[in-house]
Automatic annotation (TrEMBL):
This is SMHD1 protein. The gene is Smchd1. The lineage of its organism: Eukaryota, Metazoa, Chordata, Craniata, Vertebrata. GO terms for biological process: double-strand break repair. InterPro entries: HATPase_C_sf, SMCHD1. It comes from the Eukaryota.
Amino acid sequence: FGIASDENFVITTTNRKEITEENFSELVQDGVTLYLLQSVDQMLPLATKERIDFLPHYDTLVKSGMYEYYASEGQNPLPFALAELIDNSLSATSRNTGIRSIQIKLLFDDSQGKPAVAVIDNGSGMTSKQLNNWAVYRLSKFTRQGDFESDHSGYVRPLPVPRSLNSDISYFGVGGKQAVFFVGQSARMISKPAASQDVHELVLSKEDF
């Protein structure tokens, strides 16, 4: 890598966890992306791109949510799909010490691209690993174990209560990806973890799939 013998450097994960002799076997696995940096908190000189490899059934994207939403007992399925889309925001802001801000915007300005539904919140943010895990079909946020890093780290599932702002409003439990592809053709998630200077972006496209 052209590193001088007297130059200090660190190797980290995309979540800025430094690779050491103690955690090497835990953090360095097949397919993992690593950074070679001068320091753990070094600003990245340019954007990096990471490919996510997983093999869901093609129906996952082609027919996502169709059965669950169309089987909504004659009700309009759109509110249930929107409820799924804001579920992540409810969970991400559940431990905010200040104001919980969740905005839902319907965008129809052709000059800004295709029509879109945008859900914006001031939650704790997700790391690249957490975004990757969100992309994996049927990887429940309540059952992730082992090397899977939850996309809601520190979140504690609330006690059963009447439906409220507790991130359990998901009516069908079919998940955010089905909601995305029921409403539109692609998903773009942009997130900045509260304790990191890095901004992570995930794109899932039915057309690319």
